[in-house]
Amino acid sequence: KEDGLMSKSSDNNGHGVMIEAHGLSKFYGPFAAARDVTFSVPKGEVVAFLGPNGAGKSTTMKMLTGYLTPTEGSARIGGFDVATDRLEATKLIGYLPENGPLYYEMTPKTLLEYLGHARGLSGEYLKSRLEFVADKCALRTVWNKTIGKLSRGYKQRVGMAQALLHDPQVLILDEPTSGLDPNQVHEVRNLIHSLAKNKT
C-alpha cells in the first residue's frame, strides 16, 4: 500500500514473474501521481488495483506499459525492461486504457484488421485472431457497424478485442467494466477469469 494504492490478487499458480515494478514514481513538479510503487505478479495471476480516485492506479498502469516514463524506478514485463527494451516488452502486453481511443468512422472489423496489420499479423493467423476476438468479446452482431454508432458497452468490447488481438501474455486493463451494464460486467469478469489460465 502506498498513497492509497493497494493490490488485491488471486489465482497465484507460482510460475515465473511476468510483471515487476520497482520503486515506480511519477512526479509532476512537487505533485506525486505515484510514489515508490513496488510489486511483482507471477504468471497466470489476476491482480486488481484498488484505491480512491487520484491514488495512482492509471498512472502506474501507464508506466508499466511504457506510455509514461517514470520519474524514478523501473518496470519489467516478461523480464524485459520497459524503458530499455520497450518493443520487446510491448509485444507481450495487451493494453486497454481507460476511455481507450477508437476510430469512430471504422467498424470493429476494419479497426481490428488495421490494428492487426500494425502489430505485424497477417494471413490466416490474423483471420483466426479476428474470429477469436469477435467471439470472445461478443462483437458478431456489430461487426460491420460504425463504431461511432455503438453503445458504450460495445465500444468497451472493441477496446477489449484490440487488447486481446495479438494474443499477449500480459493484459493490463484500466477500468475494463466502465460503462457496462450488470450483465456485461459479469461477462467481462468471466472473460478475464477464462483468460487467466494462460495470461497474467
Kindly summarize this structure in a few lines.
By secondary structure, the protein is of the alpha+beta class. The strands form 3 sheets. The chain has a 4-stranded antiparallel sheet with strand order 3-2-5-6. The chain is globular, with a radius of gyration of 17 Å.
Radius of gyration equals 17 Å
Derived structural class:
alpha+beta
| Biggest beta sheet attributes | 4 strands, antiparallel
Q: Which percent band covers the strand fraction?
A: 25-35%
Q: Give the averaged pLDDT, no decimals.
A: 88
Give the helices and strands as they follow along the chain: EEEEHEEHEHHHEH
Helix content: 25-40%
Total helix count?
6
Distance between the termini: 21 Å
Order the strands across the largest sheet as they lie in space.
Answer: 3-2-5-6
Descriptors:
8 strands, two-stranded antiparallel ribbon, alpha+beta, 200 residues, 6 helices, single chain, four-stranded antiparallel beta sheet
Explain what the structure shows:
The chain has 200 residues and is of the alpha+beta class. Helix content is 34%, strand content 25%. Strands 3-2-5-6 form a four-stranded antiparallel sheet. Strands 1-4 form a two-stranded antiparallel ribbon. Strands 7-8 form a two-stranded parallel sheet.
Write the layout of secondary structure elements.
Elements: E1 6-10, E2 17-28, E3 31-42, E4 46-50, H1 57-65, E5 72-77, E6 80-81, H2 86-91, E7 93-96, H3 108-118, H4 123-136, H5 152-164, E8 170-173, H6 182-195
Parallel strand pairs: 7-8
Antiparallel strand pairs: 1-4, 2-3, 2-5, 5-6
